[in-house]
Amino acid sequence: MRHTACLLVLVFFLLPACREGRHESSHFPGEVPYSFPEPDLSHIGPPEMEMFPCSDCHDPETADPERRQLEMAHEDIVLEHDEEHRWCLDCHDLENRDMLHLASGELIPFEKSYRLCGQCHGDKYRDWKAGVHGRRTGHWDDPEQQQYLLCANCHSPHSPAFKPIQPKPVPHAPEVTK
Amino acid sequence: MSQTATTRRDFLCVVAGCAAAATAAGCSDLTHTRWFRSRFIELSPDQKERILAELLEENRKKFPPDKQDQVVLSGKDALPGVEFGYALDISRCVGCRRCVYACVDENNQSRDPQIHWIRVLEMDKERGIDFAHANPYYDTDQVPREDHFYLPVACQQCRNAPCVKSCPVGATWHEEDGIVVVDYDWCIGCRCCMAACPYGARHFNWAEPNVPAEDLNPNLHYLGNRPRPKGVVEKCTFCIQRTRNGRYPACVEICPVGARKFGNLLDPNSEVRYVIEHKRVYVLKAELNTRPRFYYFYGV
Ligand code: SF4
Questions:
Q1: Is A130 on the interface with B (CB under 8 A)?
Q2: What's the B138 CA to ligand 1 centre distance in angstroms?
Q3: Do A130 and B139 touch (CB under 8 A)?
């Protein structure tokens, strides 16, 4: 009986204590730390937007919130992003056209669009913050000297899947394998 | 062993010194020249400095006149507390070969005859990883091709490297940070290492390497991308000239899909450690017990 009690003490108090003592991201496999700091993104912006600010044309007074085929402007935008269920105003804000909104209604600027993406793509968001999803350039040993990209720098938010690209030239094959 | 080698070299040096007495080259000078010295790893800091200076002058001449003062030839040692590791996301690679050519440019590989340190293999999704049916010569307008996936292979920087064990003259070795390097001035071109390497990662200069002078990268490292002579073996060095100065390798920076991750295996916060701890990782030909520092993973 005493032995069991000792064991229980060990398991419930001592082991977690050992674990707490470990470095924050040194955890057991399967346990995922969600505590990665938000990277400093002050130096990058969203991709160039030709027609910003949107409020130049969009007036909340005259806005039509109905889902419809776009005419007049933006005909080039083909939504291939869960288009059955989504549409412009799920991300763009009707009242403030120069901002996006989260599911909670919180308004966010275009520079913070990754928070919007992260609502559905939480696993990618987590990996991106850890530097594992997406490309980083600069210094491996110094986060201060690293350049990040936002989701929208690589993925078109309206059609996020990568399109095929042209590969670089075929390597020369040795005579025998030609 | 190295003691014996040094002694024999010293002896040769005396002989050569006597023979060359007429040229008035003193023997003590000879021990520091390129032809009568030990392997780079055995040199004293002082000897390294003299040899690097000598080689720098020699290499400068290969660059166009307006670029000559940009040439640097480093012999920088491994950074303390660092062991490099690499992780490549096979679920993302699209086989575009951007990495292959970025590597060629960065590392002054011969253009013709062509040497590529990275080889991108196209594989059938149906077969999975199967080297017998892999194709590095896929020729298509658009990648990725349907029903195929891509597996770029370069030096795996093995902890238990067969190439290092096979070299009869000790011209290739493990550095403290895990990079397997070649001393091009010590390699005798026997190509034992090429036969030993199970990844086809070593490449031989069958002819004088040929890189247009204006395309040479002037940021050189003795054990890395300095121009090689004909008759020696070369391979990926994790971009030693960049990574020992804190920078990512060239292939990491070019990859358009961000499939390539690099960092310090000893740092629990590094990107490679995150990959190893959270993703399904895979090493090539694990059954050979080469214990690569290069990991493949499924990021999605
Ligand atoms: S650059 Fe990236 S996507 Fe292209 S072949 Fe190399 S690893 Fe694959």
A1: yes
A2: 14
A3: no
Cβ neighbors of B157 (< 8 A, separation 6 or more) are B84, B86, B178, B179, B180, B236, B238, B292, B293, B294
Q: How far does the centroid of ligand 1 lie from the alpha carbon of residue A31, in Å?
A: 30
Domain ranges of chain A: 49-59+74-158
Question: Considering the domain B40-300 in this protein, what is its CATH number?
Answer: 3.30.70.20
| pLDDT average, residue stretch B232-250 | 98
Q: What pLDDT digit, counting tens, does each position of A9-50 carry?
A: 444 444 444 433 333 444 444 444 445 566 666 666 677 777
8 Å CB contact of B253 and A167: no
Residue A98 tokens, joined: 């120069």
pLDDT, tens digit, 9 for 90 and up, residues A129-164 = 999 999 999 999 998 898 889 999 999 999 999 999
**Confidence at residue A68, expressed as pLDDT on a 0 to 100 scale:** 85
- Of the candidates B282, B210, B162, which has an alpha carbon nearest to the alpha carbon of residue B62? B210
Residue in chain A lying closest to B84 (CA): A140
